[in-house]
Design a protein that fits this description.
Largest sheet: 6 strands, mixed
Strand order of the largest sheet: 4-3-2-1-5-6
Order of helices and strands: EHEEHEHEHEHHHEEEEEEHHEEEEEEEE
Length: 338
């Protein structure tokens, strides 16, 4: 937008409001205007936000947006389309302002993490990884995907997590070949792979981790696929550096899987940014021209999915520090066989 146009950015997403104000609010909006952070909430949050929100001012939301736009002669409003409801957009349109997507601007503020943010994400990852290893003794023949999911989420909560950072995926056998499998009541039987994709929220920041295990004696095909995915993960991890473009990062893993004959079974991107949201900037995919910077935090998660058989995914949350990838997870990538 032209600097001559009087414009304001409006945030309605609760995660982003928490990011900018350190206040957890499920209903309200934040105005970013001329260096100020103006938080608008209803009566339920007013007194708590007055005490705790890191905002320039806190105001009651009812009728206030119209008043603000009129008083300040606002001509255009930036919103993050992906996180803004249709009803809020309708309200803006009725106010007669030009509306545009400010997602790139918000991403420029959130995609490079401070040292303190990285420290919190690391703690979130430590809770997730610790919980994963505490879960292993519960993996027995006959347990259902759903029961194992509930157990993992309970363990993460006991270890200090606020909640899961996304809907935990537990997939047994052929279900592991579905990248976003919806956890079911399928029971574990002997000689099955187990894919566990999970993470937790800690102090407002997410973690993301995937491990693929084998319950019983793995066959040659599983081990071959596992080793190819492991090699793809490690190759990407070792080669991604300061200045690497997102599509180049994705290509490191893709080439390994291509060399092993599995490229067509890699059906998603290499990774995504992780912060107050489980999916944010930067994106590491075949089209991304984002140039990676120190302070970026993202996933490295190559996978191979053989429909009707099994899938393998290995994922860590990593940070780019001093020009190199640093994993937030401490465990190696060797197959866990139970």
């Amino acid at each position: 937008m032209s600097s001559e146009v009087n414009s304001v950015n409006i945030i309605t997403d609760g995660d982003l409001i928490r990011y900018f104000t350190s206040f957890d609010c499920s209903d309200g909006f934040l105005l970013l205007y001329k260096g100020e952070k103006l938080l608008y909430v209803d009566n339920r949050y007013y007194f708590a936000s007055k005490q705790n929100a890191k905002a320039t001012s806190v105001l009651l939301s009812e009728g206030s947006l119209n008043e603000f736009i009129t008083k300040n002669a606002i001509k255009s409003v930036g919103i993050v389309y992906e996180y803004t409801s249709a009803s809020f957009l309708k309200d803006l349109n009725e106010l007669g302002v030009e509306v545009y997507d400010c997602a790139d601007y918000i991403a420029s503020l959130t995609s490079v993490k401070t040292d303190s943010e990285i420290s919190v994400i690391k703690q979130s990852c430590q809770i997730a990884e610790k919980s994963f290893f505490q879960l292993l003794p519960f993996i027995k023949e006959g347990i259902t995907e759903r029961d194992l999911k509930l157990e993992l989420e309970y363990i993460m909560a006991k270890n200090g997590a606020e909640k899961p950072s996304f809907d935990t995926i537990i997939a047994f056998g052929e279900n592991s070949a579905v990248p976003h499998h919806k956890t079911s009541n399928k029971k574990l039987t002997a000689n099955q792979p187990i894919l566990i994709d999970f993470g937790c929220l800690y102090n407002g920041y997410c973690s993301d981790m995937t491990r693929t295990l084998f319950f019983g004696k793995p066959n040659e095909e599983f081990l071959k696929v596992y080793n190819a995915v492991k090699q793809a993960h490690l190759t990407a991890f070792e080669n991604i550096t300061l200045g690497t473009m997102g599509k180049v990062a994705d290509g490191y893993a893709r080439k390994v899987l291509d060399d092993n004959g599995y490229l067509k079974y890699f059906t998603h991107s290499l990774g995504h940014g992780i912060g107050v949201k489980i999916h944010e900037s930067p994106r590491l995919n075949v089209k991304s021209e984002y140039v990676l910077k120190n302070g970026n935090v993202f996933s490295i998660e190559p996978g191979v999915y053989l429909n009707g058989k099994f899938g393998v995914r290995i994922e860590d949350t990593v940070a780019l520090i001093d020009g190199k990838c640093v994993s937030m997870m401490t465990s190696d990538k060797n197959p866990i066989i139970l």
